[in-house]
Amino acid sequence: MANKRIYLKPRKEQSLLRFHPWVFSGAVAKADTGVENGELVDVYSSEGEFLARGHYQAGSIMVRLLTFEDEEIGADFWLKKLSQAFELRHKLGLIDNLSTNCYRLVHGEGDYLPGLIVDIYDSVAVMQTHSAGMYSCRAQIANALVELYGRSLAVYSKATQIGTFEGDDDYLHNSAPNFDVVSENGCKFLVDWHKGQKTGFFLDQRDNRELVSSYSNRRRVLNLFCYTGGFTIYALRGGAICADSVDSSKYAIELVRKNLELNNYSSAEFFNRTICADAIEFLRGVKKGEYDLMIVDPPAFAKHLSAKSNALRAYQRLNALAIEKVAKGGMIFTFSCSQVVDKHDFALAIFSAAAQTGRNVRIIERLSQPADHPVSIYHPEGEYLKGLALYVE
Ligand code: SAH
After folding, report:
1. Residue 202 and residue 126: Cα distance in Å, rounded?
2. Ligand 1 neighbours (beta carbon < 6 A)
3. Which of 94, 113, 117, 301 could form a disulfide with 128 if both were Cys (CB 3.0 to 4.6 A apart)?
4. What is the whole-number distance in angstroms between the Cα of residue 300 and the centre of ligand 1?
5. 0.85 surpassed by pTM
6. Residue 163 has pLDDT above 80, yes or no
7. Please, what is the average pLDDT of the chain?
8. CATH number of residue 209's parent domain
9. CATH of the domain at 126
């Protein structure tokens, strides 16, 4: 049966001709009657020319595009797309890598698959679908993953909330315990894809963790918003005198303790504190000069454009406090993962924070997301993680 059709307004096909993966509702002139959320639709120009095919969803992003060709979205399509994603990770040196067995295989629009995230944790693929259409393709995607990685792969799909619709958590192929120990640059981490945040681990900070490690020798480190302690373990591996970890999630802090044990940093000779607290409250109580290196990696403060100015003020407040407290000659690795806050906005918030403290602050590194979180040149919105390494006098 032919797909239903969406017709664009005159001249609204330009972004599609440049492979932008979304159709905004404002560009749509009309849709066939009865189109339902998650359904595959064909997008046509006002002149009646076929442009692209994708998943329909009522809302500001009305169609998430899967292809700009007239091809069937079936088993062959999924295998082709996942093979292309695999090929890139292979070129990045992430496949059969002895020190790193966790990486992102599919990064939504960055792998031309809007609404789909697939993270690999050794022999388990954890999938998150962010649209009703992707959710409905889970079984086909799982089949393609098994074809690519072999029958021993377990495929887990994380619950998805899309508007009022809530999907289930389940194994789509094989089953496994809901957690495993993975290795990232030789550091070991317990990842729980069942109860953990996102797919279980923040793979997007891998390169930044490595960088922090290289600056940590003989430093007293404070890891704020630490989640399961990624930066903490790397800082200790890099020779930190101590690394304290703060997160408001009790479960995350439990996992930090386990990760310290796993990496042999929990014996009596170490004084690494694990603190379940609000990061700002904790920071207020820190004595000036108590830490030489701080990591400030809060959750997204703004999920929508409307929240942007509040988010910028929150980044400013938080970072002003960190800049005020860090030791003389200290460093701060500060991040934002809010998609609506771009790197210029973020730098401006940090500038305001520094100015507020009156301390001399220099930018020594500009930070971003790693290569397995690629950004389509046609979809710059995909560059969501930004950070600055600051040197504070
Ligand atoms: N840096 C981490 C990822 C941080 S994600 C890593 O490399 O893995 C953001 C974390 O902030 C989450 O673990 C969340 O539980 C925590 N969080 C959210 N609000 C917080 C608050 N007010 N105080 C402390 N932690 C908070």
Report:
1. 13
2. 197, 202, 205, 225-228, 230-231, 246-249, 252, 278-279, 297-299
3. 117
4. 9
5. yes
6. no
7. 95
8. 3.40.50.150
9. 3.30.750.80
d(CA 6, CA 19): 17
Task: Give CA separation, 116 vs 81, 128, 147, 194, 282, in Å.
Answer: 12, 6, 18, 18, 36
Q: Check: CB of residue 378 under 8 Å from CB of residue 21.
A: yes
pLDDT tens, position by position, 231-266: 999 999 999 999 999 999 999 999 999 999 999 998
CA-to-CA distance for 309 and 306, rounded, in angstroms? 8
305/279 same-domain check: yes
State how far the alpha carbon of 225 is from the alpha carbons of 89, 106, 299, in Å: 28, 25, 8
Total structural domains within the chain? 3
- Return the pLDDT at 331: 98
pLDDT in tens, 17-47: 999 999 999 999 999 999 999 999 999 999 9
- Give the domain range for residue 60: 4-67
Place of tokens 């992707």: 134
